[in-house]
């Protein structure tokens, strides 16, 4: 019995040594990387970075290691973190090409698999980004046509609010549906009624996806996807949400394919993509494939719905929290537009305070505080460090929007910081709610 216990102990020790040696073998050499906490075998920097509080943990480490440092998310995922306006702008603005690779989002990468406008890299990304921008602009985004589309949807939203007849209600679903309808009009050429059950399920799936990504489990999955992926857990629910979004997208694409004509003008993004597919069908290397179509429009549906809807909801909460700001916005709208008239893009210069409130709401919200993961496209020097090709980079966008060196008292809601001495809107180079550099596609729809 004692001999068996001894052998069991020796076997356990051998297995542990094997795991440790594999970990050390697979962990890339630090070389001339920025400093950071020493990673533990198998755990990486888990002791310093608790899932669910990853962003705050990275900010805390920056106080010890400076604005550029290295961490390990799990045993093998090495990440260089950029904190503050100067570091992020120097990288994504000054060395945009070197930092232009798309990083990893383990919670979504299995679904998108490097396809679509947001998850692609290299030449595929360049072609899809150029196409998406041109298609959206041709369909009226940022122009009078897009403005009229938004105004009509806002009118429908106001009418839905009025039907509550003053009763308390949660506007989250309606706000998300209104913003999603604008996206659906551009992408699929459709508008869905707010009481449509399928439409409500799509919104709930988009919301569930966002919550899953940002949850403690989602952050743990980013660190240990290699371990958690084959196990049962919350990621099965996330896959269900993504499946709902994909099924809706596939349904809409199939409807387009059934009535598609190469001679007709593009009525929406799907039509434009199908036209491009038809034009390049003889090219074996074309990036205009059905998978890239499905992944592009799925991303536009998800991101356009959740980012804009969440921003509007937060702005409304701030107006409730600060009634004096709400009153001043109301007075400016009535004075400049008169009662009952919807604002247009041409009115923007006449509504500086309202514009400043929207800027400050986006700054304070910092909707994507971690920023989008990037990778180094070629070995490069940055601030005296050598970053090998393939190194992941986290530019913490929230650290720019809340940087006390740039925004005085950054935790306070103060729209006046976006106004000059004459009361006109003042542009701020640190106002980067949708990141910086050539990968700013997240904010394409949001800004317009």
TrEMBL record:
Protein's membrane topology: Peripheral membrane protein
Alphabetical list of InterPro entries matching this protein: Cyt_P450, Cyt_P450_E_grp-I, Cyt_P450_E_grp-I_CYP2A-like, Cyt_P450_sf, Cytochrome_P450_fam2
A Pfam entry, by short name: p450
Keyword Protease among UniProt keywords: no
Signal sequence annotation: 1-31
Gene Ontology MF annotations: heme binding; iron ion binding; oxidoreductase activity, acting on paired donors, with incorporation or reduction of molecular oxygen, reduced flavin or flavoprotein as one donor, and incorporation of one atom of oxygen
Subcellular compartments: Endoplasmic reticulum membrane; Microsome membrane
GO cellular component term, pick one: endoplasmic reticulum membrane
Main location, first listed in the record: endoplasmic reticulum
Cofactor: heme
Documented EC number(s): 1.14.14.1
Similarity comment text for this entry: Belongs to the cytochrome P450 family.
Role of this protein: Cytochromes P450 are a group of heme-thiolate monooxygenases.
Protein name listed in UniProt: Cytochrome P450
Species assigned in the record: Mus musculus
